[in-house]
């Protein structure tokens, strides 16, 4: 066992050195990636130190330590794979066209005090994030979306997961209170003690458990809306509405312990935020749009007990408290109204909202406008 | 929009937990054979803090599961770990330490104890906790790193 462990650690050490030497030189990457680079380099260096510690532990010649060293070797191998397979990709893939997304991520992190010094980068993939405070933040964005403005507001939802991680203890407490409130709403008026009552109690528990993760997703949608306003709602709705019937309804079995609420329910809550912001007309239009697609698919709105109208008030109150706790950026409404053209010195949020206005005005002419806007915006954020 | 955030957070949390278990286990074993292992002192302190924090919050969750109340405050991965813990508790051929025969909070007093028999029991608890976490980590590892 000693020899197996020694050779495995020496092999890992060699691989770490190869990975470090495979990192691009700092001169060839964007300024926005420099702090990300530094953290990845530091993670690789610390991992190297830990492997050296394992080799040092092996030299103590204590057989009773082998099981611990074996476990450590496995931990470090997985950590190496994480760096090697996932976290170095934003550095290795860097090309000048990445700058639009990188600038947007940097702006997003810089404007929030909690994340000002947290590096962020991105890779190709379905919209997502790796939100752990131990590593620099990796976002995911589909390839085509990286080159335009329309879907960049989806970063704001993912950023919500990072805000949640920064305020986890306080937000978890708020969600626990919500779970208790939903549990009391689901409690039957008449209590029985038979088999059916037991099954129903079990179903209620599943619903309450599922709401723990759903609450975080709805909070992230609210963060997206607070930061981006209409551009987030537009991006969200356009991104999800044509995926298929599962965005409108799921069977009970598929809702059990699911990570995300059905998109139609999320749209319902976004409409509530729109109404609270005085955008009644837009909320109505959005509801009609989703209902029309659902009708065409012969889908009736049904969340199989996972949501009912009584839930709305406590959910909205909890999300409101979560937003107060985390304080996501909010553009002043008067600035949002003044979107003008991309030629002015406008904020990223104004630009993204302008993009959706231009797209809705004339989708076919949008491409030319976007190319010019992206170019001006990139220079503006230099 | 994907749910990798949950797998990633769970993966990182469990990796850190395993590292803390191993640090404390190595240190305790070395102390039992007269090696004071001073070079690891800072890491041992961090490992003790990490384990203490985990055990306190895990114990709080376990206490919630008495009766028929829903398990509030746990995501799907943590809830699975609670279920894995109860399954292990019922497997007294494999899991026999105080962690499973008594309660996780029992480990807290073992961490700070200087008695030799407590240190030996601590090693048993850490070994079994490591088994539990390693089995649990598999799902997150697959989700984040895939399979070869």
Describe the structure concisely.
The complex is a heterodimer of chains A (382) and B (148). Chain A has 382 residues and is mainly alpha-helical.
Mean pLDDT of chain A: 92
Please identify the oligomeric state.
Answer: heterodimer
Instruction: Report the major sheet of chain B.
Output: none
Number of strands of chain B: 0
Q: Supply Rg of chain A.
A: 24 Å
List strands and helices in order, with pairings:
The complex is a heterodimer of chains A (382) and B (148).
Chain A: H1 2-22, H2 34-58, H3 66-87, H4 89-92, H5 99-110, E1 120-124, E2 128-130, E3 137-141, H6 154-166, H7 168-186, H8 195-228, H9 230-240, H10 252-255, H11 263-276, H12 280-296, H13 312-326, H14 333-337, H15 348-361, H16 366-380
Parallel strand pairs in A: 1-3
Antiparallel strand pairs in A: 2-3
Chain B: H1 4-32, H2 41-64, H3 76-89, H4 98-101, H5 106-112, H6 116-145
Notes on the protein architecture:
The complex is a heterodimer of chains A (382) and B (148). In chain A, 64% of the residues lie in helices and 3% in strands. Chain A has 382 residues and is mainly alpha-helical. Chain A folds into three domains: 146 residues; 173 residues, no CATH class; 48 residues, no CATH class. A three-stranded mixed sheet of chain A has the order 1-3-2. In chain A, a hairpin with a 6-residue loop joins β2 and β3. Chain A is globular. With 148 residues, chain B is mainly α. The model of chain B has no long low-confidence stretch (mean pLDDT 89). Chain B starts with a helix and ends with a helix. In chain B, 73% of the residues lie in helices and 0% in strands. Chain B is globular, with a radius of gyration of 16 Å. Chain B has one domain: Up-down Bundle (Four Helix Bundle (Hemerythrin (Met), subunit A)), CATH 1.20.120. Classes of the chains: A mainly alpha (382), B mainly alpha (148). Chains A and B meet through α3, β2, α6, α7 and α8 of A and α1 and α6 of B.
